[in-house]
Here is the input.
Amino acid sequence: MGYDLMVFNKESAPRSRAQFMQWYEEQTTWVENHGNVGLAHVSRSLRGWLSDMVKVFPAARGPFAHTMYNNLADYSIGKDIIYVSFSDAAAKAAYTTSLALAGKYEVGFFDVSTENAAILFPENGRLLALPARKKEPAPRKGWLGVNWLSPARIR
Here is the structure.
C-alpha cells in the first residue's frame, strides 16, 4: 500500500475545496515536461522543503537517490507541487516531518492518503485548513495548526 502526501506552492493552489481537488487532479497527471532543467522550475519554498525532507527521507530514485536507508521516499516534482510516497512504516514520521517543514517553508500541505483530508494553507506561521465538505465525514483527527518553531499540535 503506502502513504502519500503532497506539498504545494500556496500562490498557485485554489482556496476552495472543490477547485483544489480539480487542480490536484490536473497537477498529478504529470503533463509537465521539464527535461533536464532540474529544480530550476520549482519555487524557493518548495526547494527548501525538499532539501530538508531528503535529509530525513532520502530519495529512492533520481538525482538525490540513496540505497543504504530503509526510510526512502519516492519524490515526484512538478512546477507547483511535490508529491511524495512513503512506506506504511514511515507514514507517521513522514506526516509529522512534512507538516512541520510545510509550516517552516510556508508551503501548503495535502494528506493524499486520507479520505476527505484537510487541505492546509500557510498563514502567519501556521497551517490553516480549508473547510471540509459538509456531506462527508470530517477529516480524521490530525494536525490542523502548526507553528514551525514548536511541535505541531491538534487544534
In short: Residues 3-129 form one domain. The longest strand covers residues 3-8. The chain has a mean pLDDT of 80.
